[in-house]
Specification:
Helices cover 64% and strands 4% of the residues. It contains six helices and two strands.
Length: 185
Amino acid sequence: MELTGEETRIRALFSQVRQADEQTAPSFAGVWNRAQSKTVRTTRVFNLSFAAASALLVCGLVSLAWWSTRRPQHLNAVIVSDSPIASPTVKVLEPAKNPEPVKITQHRFVGRSLALKLAARRQAVLVAAGKKALRDAKAIASWQSPTATLLASPSDELLKSLPQLTQTAEELKSFLRDQLNSQPK
């Protein structure tokens, strides 16, 4: 098959375009090396960020543990002296299972009075929370399934009763017949 003038011209144009593409296209080895270096760099960045996040988490947990041990403990206080002239003395009580409300008396020191009022308010909140927890526990203990009645069957009594070992087969048949006849329909 011989090429005509038009076909040779088209081939020449295609070869020129191919040469231009080869000059502008990167080599396969270069592209491959760049792709390999990016995956290594991405892995390193991920490892570094994972280590930084882990270190931050550990620091946060350590500071939380330290803060919880350094936090002041809540104590119950009772005023011992009722005299308005002398400065009142405060007796610190250990926490009890059934705490009593804090007794507050009027005196001239506003700062101490405010602290005692706050302690009484906190005590009242704790008592109210205890009552609510008790009420919730009673509600949970008395809960019954709403579908329990759907699971009940008229033949439950028949299935729950056991025959006596001294009964004969005829007595058992009559017992079952009586049970089935006594069931409401």
